[in-house]
Amino acid sequence: MDRQQHARLDELMRDPYPLYARARRAEGLTYVPEFGAWLVARDADVREVLRRPNVFSSANAVRADATPSAAAQAVLGLGTGARRRVVITADGPAHQRLRTPIVRGLTPARVAAVLPYAAERAAALADAFAAPGRGRRTDVMGAYAMHLPGQVIGHILGFDPADVPLIVRGGHSIERLLFRPLPEDEQIAAAHDMVALQRLLERYVRDRHTAPRDDLCSEMVASLAPDDGEPDEADPADDAGHAAGCPHELTVGQRGELVSHLQNFLLAGHLTTTALIGTTLLHLLRHPAQWKLVCEEPERIPAAIEEAARFDTALQGFRRVTTRAVTLAGTELPAGAEVLVGFGAAGRDEGRYARPDVFDITRTPVARHIAFGLGAHACPGALLAREQLRLTLELFTRRFPGLRLAGDGAAVRMRPTLIHRSPEALYVTW
């Protein structure tokens, strides 16, 4: 993809809602050349795709928009190697195997157990940007939203807090490298961050395999690389190590899978929640009367979170590929056809929501949205994300009831992505 094509794609992703509206009005599906896929924009059609994973495979759920330069690829070669199948790109039993330890690690009880830590970290971040002498203006993305979710997910995994900055930086570098056209020096820097993150994760994988702890990282390792002496079937060369009498060593394939799985989990666990914090605050502050309402009536905070997720979800869409010929919304799709499942488009569907383009935390009745997915691939971290948003809004409405956008709120620039949609920066004052 050349720079001109990237510029068109950037413009489309910064504000995809006009495209969504046209696609919902059109007969059948709309093919979008910039995405190289058929856009599924109506709520009912999105739900149909998500309920039929045997027909609409997740194998291509996320596809890179940029190809790293040869120099950046040389750096990437120092990492863990080829990307392995992860939970968002797996189907059937393979998907269930990868998903199971995540679901066990994010039960309501485990989420509840991490909330005191999350609240303490949220308060500390607010203390830092609101400290006396710092002034009453800050970029809430850089000062708060880009830190809290990484700290929380790192705590759940059992990582050293000193490693969290690398985890956060590495996650954002991966997204920039694979989805943005960067100068070569920035590509190389991002590739080094990605390799550093992979090496850190491999160290944790080895450590937790040798000495398990009561954390999610240990649970993932135990679940995906059970200490039963069986080699990874994807890496037959590893058989030699087992035959030589090393049944308790992780194979190359197991290490690679675990590093890829942890990397994917981290990206989903902190980038998406970071984005949700940003968009939720943005839309509440663009509607001062609604911000005032949640300040005066904090019991409305859960409804505000759901409305923000419906109105402008962080995860705008995932790709799917058809496993056989199928007809969807009257459009005949051959086997191997790519579709983009528009969660963001479904959230503005006129057939499901009254005044869908209006942000209104008081709307009733509230139709259940699918911002966190549906079916086999529904987000297992939805509760954790919602709880971090709840803590954030409770904290901010209590400490900063006069919070408002600094300058012209209409000038806030959204990041050009469909997987972690959020403000590039969100300057506020109070």
TrEMBL record:
UniProt feature, compositional bias: Acidic residues: 227-238
Region (Disordered) location: 223-247
An example molecular function term from Gene Ontology annotations: oxidoreductase activity, acting on paired donors, with incorporation or reduction of molecular oxygen
Keyword Metal-binding listed: yes
Record-linked Pfam families: p450
Keywords: Heme, Iron, Metal-binding, Monooxygenase, Oxidoreductase
Family statement drawn from the similarity comment of this UniProt entry: Belongs to the cytochrome P450 family.
PANTHER family assigned: CYTOCHROME P450 YJIB-RELATED (PTHR46696:SF1), P450, PUTATIVE (EUROFUNG)-RELATED (PTHR46696)
Designated name of the protein: Cytochrome
Organism, scientific name: Streptomyces silvensis
Record lineage: Bacteria, Bacillati, Actinomycetota, Actinomycetes, Kitasatosporales
